[in-house]
Amino acid sequence: MFIIKYKKIFIGVSITLVVLALLSLFMFGLTVGIDFKGGALTEVVYKVERPAQADLNKNLEALGFGSILLQPTGELGYIVKSRDLNDSEHTLILQTLSGGKNDILTEMSFNSIGPSVGRELARKAVMAVVLVSLAIICFIAFAFRKVSKPVSSWKYGIIAIVALLHDAVIPTGIFAALSHYYGAELDTLFVVAILTILGLSVSDTIVIFDRIRENLKNQMTGSKINFSEVVGHSLEQSFVRSLSTSLTVILVLLALFFFGPVTTKYFALMLTAGMFFGTYSSIFLASPLLVLSEEWQSKK
């Protein structure tokens, strides 16, 4: 199959994308949202017409409450993200948003998260990512424990983890650029997106690896196995299935991005990027790395 024939090109593309994502991450960093650093979130909906965002931003900055992020939501609403507010500051923000006319808007919700709660959420989020990653490693090690020739079972696990890192790093780099240019904030939905990406990506990779394992069993006749041909044949059997499944999910996520609420737009975009690069890594990275590993092993 052409993927195996040009494996070094596809691996090179993945390396380039990961390097660019890391550069984006180090240059721009991630803007932490109130979920993790603490703060207040106020959502209001205007009854008739929504004031211009530029005018409201100017008025909110004049309050001297520090950095305040104003995001449109729906056709008539705004979401205001700020530092933690007391009752009088909360009232002052509502008055600023309404221009002193309280009957022109309705406060839909107000949530306040203290710094200690934010730190606890951050700790649990990191723990969740680590535990899920460990669980995936253990599952792969168990599933491929009987595979030993011509590539050892532990190499399947290592390559799957490399693919997972690829699938998590690239969307994170994209999110860092969105944070810098559009003010996207790292929140609990970001963590959910990363965990979902890890699960979906490893699922696709394991399906292809399992097909390789089955084809290897069918060719265990005592003669020398052409591993690259087995992997190429396995990819041909899995190619359409992987693309069809991923495309179906991506179409749903794009619909959520374009037509869903503003609060889930970055979540949908992250998942879309994760599905795209996860499918790419399963087909164009993980399997070629298996072949490359076998070639290096046979040269020793």
UniProtKB/TrEMBL annotation:
Pfam families: SecD_SecF_C
InterPro entries: SecD/SecF_arch_bac (IPR022813), SecD/SecF_bac (IPR022645), SecD_SecF_C (IPR048634), SecF_bac (IPR005665), SSD (IPR000731)
Cellular localisation: Cell membrane
Transmembrane segment boundaries: 9-34, 125-144, 156-182, 188-209, 243-260, 266-292
Membrane topology annotation: Multi-pass membrane protein
Keyword set includes Membrane: yes
Gene3D superfamilies on file: Multidrug efflux transporter AcrB transmembrane domain
UniProt keyword annotation of Membrane present: yes
One of the GO biological process terms: protein transport by the Sec complex
Single Gene Ontology MF annotation: protein-transporting ATPase activity
Domain SSD: 125-292
Primary localization class, coarse: membrane
Keywords in alphabetical order: Cell inner membrane, Cell membrane, Membrane, Protein transport, Translocation, Transmembrane, Transmembrane helix, Transport
GO cellular component: plasma membrane
Protein family membership: Belongs to the SecD/SecF family. SecF subfamily.
Protein function: Part of the Sec protein translocase complex. Interacts with the SecYEG preprotein conducting channel. SecDF uses the proton motive force (PMF) to complete protein translocation after the ATP-dependent function of SecA.
Subunit structure: Forms a complex with SecD. Part of the essential Sec protein translocation apparatus which comprises SecA, SecYEG and auxiliary proteins SecDF. Other proteins may also be involved.
Full protein name: Protein-export membrane protein SecF
The species this protein was found in: Candidatus Nomurabacteria bacterium GW2011_GWF2_43_8
Organism lineage: Bacteria, Candidatus Nomuraibacteriota
